[in-house]
Every structure is written in C-alpha cells, then in structure tokens.
Specification:
The chain is α/β, with parallel strands linked by helices. The chain folds into 2 domains: 184 residues, Rossmann fold, CATH 3.40.50.2000; 162 residues, Glycogen Phosphorylase B (Rossmann fold), CATH 3.40.50. 38% of the residues lie in helices and 16% in strands. α1 crosses α12. The two termini are 23 Å apart. 42% of the residues are buried.
Length: 359
Amino acid sequence: MTRHFAIAAWALGTGPSGAHRRFETLLRAVARQLEPDERITVLHGSYPNPLELGPAVTWRQFGIPAAPTWQRIRAERQRCAQIVRSIGASVLDLGTLPVPPALPCPVVLTIHDLRDLDGWRRRMPRGVARAIVRHAVARAAAVIVPSEFTASRMREHGCDLAPIHVIPGSIEENTLRHGSPTEPNYVLHVGHVERRKNLEILLEAIASTRTTPMLRFVGRDHGARRALDEKARALGVEDRVQWLGTVSEAELMTIYDGAAAIVVPSHYEGFGFPALEGLAADRPVIVSDCGALPEVVGNAGTIVPADDATAWARAIDTAIAAPTSNPDRHRRVLEFDPDRAAEATLAVWRMSTRSDRVR
C-alpha cells in the first residue's frame, strides 16, 4: 500500500523568506529518503518555482491564500478536507492553525512557537489562543516543533496533548562558505521588523560602539519601523541605519557574506534561522539569551543579555576588531543536518499513518 504524504504549503506565500529556505532544504532531504512505495504531494497556493525532485514529489496548486489569516482559515474550512480526500493522502502535514474540520486522514501539526500564548502577538486574547492550540493538538496524530524551547512552552501551557517531536531547522552542507569580508563595516539583522525582535537595542548599541558600523536590516516591516526611525534620529544614528526590505536569495547570501556580524536580539524566537545562516556564512553571530537562540548557536556564537545595550555594543566591537574565520561555526551548522531532520520527519509521518486520531 502506497503511503501518500500531503504537505500544506499554501501559507508560505510567494517568498523569498527564511520559511521558504527551511522548507525547501527539508523537502530535498525528504525526497532523497522516500521508500519506493511512498510519495509526496505539495499543496500550494502560488509557490514560486516549485522544485523538481523526481516523480515521487508532485505539486498541486489550490486557491487557498496565504493571507490575510481569516481568508486562509475560511478557505481551509471550506476546501481542505475535499482537497486531501481528492488526492488520497495518508497523512497531512499542516503548519497552520486551526486544524480544518472533517479531514479524512491523520494530521501531523507543525508549531513553530507559541507567541500568541506568550504575549508576543496581540491577535487574540491569550485564553482564546490557548484553546485554539489545545483543540488543534488534540486532533493531531503528532506535533513537530523546531526547538526544545518550543517543546517546553507547549508543556508549560498544557498543550502537550499529542506526542511532541523536536526537529530543528537545517542547512545543506553545500551552502557553507568560508572567508572574511575585506571591509567589515556593517552589522546585519535579517527578519521581520516587529516588536518581539527587540531591534531598538541595536540602535542603542551602535550609538555607543567604539567603532562606527552601519546597521543593515533585511526584511519586511511588520509595524515597527516608524518607531525605530524615530529612535534612530533621537540617538543621532539615523545616517548609520539602512533598511533594505526584501531581497532575493542570491542578494541575501552576498549580504550575509559581507557582514561584520549577524545580530539577533529577539525577545522571543521559536528557532532563529538567521542565526544558523550567519554561522553557515562563517560570520560572527551575536544573539540574545531569549527563546531558542542559545539552543541554536551553542558555543559557536556570542550570547548577550537581550536588553543590555552596553553588552551588545561590546560584542559588536569585538566582532569588528577580529573578523576571522572560526571552524566552530561550521561544526555547529553541521549538527543541523537536513538528512537527519528528514529521517526524523519521515519517521513521524510513517508512524502517523497508523493513528486513529482523525476528526
């Protein structure tokens, strides 16, 4: 009997993004490990340039939007069960909430973080968010999370109503780069510009560094840029701040390679993929002591108290003063092996085909 794994990828949107890079890395590795009687269908809305991964991986486009959230939820409620039934899926891998009703097969639910429950997104009251997560998890055959941090938050909130499997993000070995920039004159933040990213601490830090680096931001504005611009002017560093917005994958890799340091000062992260990408580029990576970030960088990065501007300034000065290669960075990245992540993911999918938790 063929095992048919369906992946709901419509929430990824059109990219480029870290979510796309994580997804494609894992999908390539999973495709390499499929058994002869296994296949994958990627269900998407308008995915740019679907990967060609052989006959066992097909892509099907359906009219479920990535955003706004209420439109996605409505479309999932109306169409998801019929879509999954029409392709004869054995398991649905789902990375969004809530779980649509009347699904004909078991669900493997991926939960990146619990920011709604932990107060870092004010989309709904925490009690409502907790009820939605608990209801979704209770219907799932299994839950995949990217870090021990998120697993611990699941348990803390009483959301461990299905088996929880920690499967971190991963990076392919052929993306590792070596070398140091010839003129390391900027520090780099990659990610959405939003409150939980704690970006104001970077402005305070560069205002007091001994060196005078530029501060570059790559990523979409999610409502925080105006306040950050005002703070930069108040600190007198507005001429040292550059907003690059969304860039192509090739441009992003070049920007990583030229940075004096990658800085991730977030108050809350379920994983922290830019920190791992910074290590892959062999750049100094400075992260806060919050969320999963220390778990990602280990001893290969510098961990700084999230709200200590003096410590951030000192760490940035140190990175600029010694822009050297460090083999510990790549050794750390190799611990996040996509083949290992694929093996673990397939094990969860295969186990879930035998689950009777179908609602």
